[in-house]
Write a structure and sequence with these properties.
The protein is of the alpha+beta class and 144 residues long. The chain has three helices and eight strands. It has a single domain, classed as 2-Layer Sandwich (Alpha-D-Glucose-1,6-Bisphosphate, Chain A, domain 4). Helices cover 27% and strands 40% of the residues.
């Protein structure tokens, strides 16, 4: 047996590569809103709004204009060796439309996650509505 095949078998046996990142949300429409404020000010308001609502930032790129939050459980069922439930994360995009206008889009990735020991299985789920996204945009509007 060649070395590459052997490494692949060992990796599968140990559970490497089992966890998959959630794919793009199947929702066709992205919740977005245009605000009458410069992009820097909107960015600051978004950061404080996310923190106030309990969302932690995972990664961001201020120059490009996007923020990705850490995943949160919507209905956690956590046990010592097993976990199951729906989780979601937000992808927020900002685009300057001029000196005093900024468009903000909020996408939510919703997925079912099952965990047994260190093996994680994730399956994308279509959100029933855009209430979470609309709530984030409304909170940003109130912060401005």
């Amino acid at each position: 047996m060649n070395r590459v095949a052997w490494i692949g078998i060992v990796a599968l046996a140990l559970g490497f590569g089992v966890a998959t990142a959630p794919g793009p949300s199947p929702a066709a429409d992205v919740a977005s809103r245009t605000f009458d404020a410069p992009m820097d000010h909107v960015w600051t308001v978004i950061e404080s709004t996310l923190k106030r609502l309990g969302w932690d930032t995972d990664t961001y790129d201020r120059a490009v204009g996007w923020i990705l939050t850490e995943a949160r459980a919507t209905d956690p069922k956590e046990f010592a060796l097993y976990g199951k439930g729906l989780r979601h994360k937000l992808r927020i995009s900002l685009k300057a439309l001029g000196p005093g206008r900024t468009m903000v889009s909020v996408e939510r990735d919703l997925y079912e996650e099952k965990r047994v020991l260190w093996m994680i299985e994730r399956k994308p789920v279509a959100p029933a509505d855009q209430a979470v996204e609309a709530g984030i945009l409304e909170a940003i509007q109130q912060g401005l």
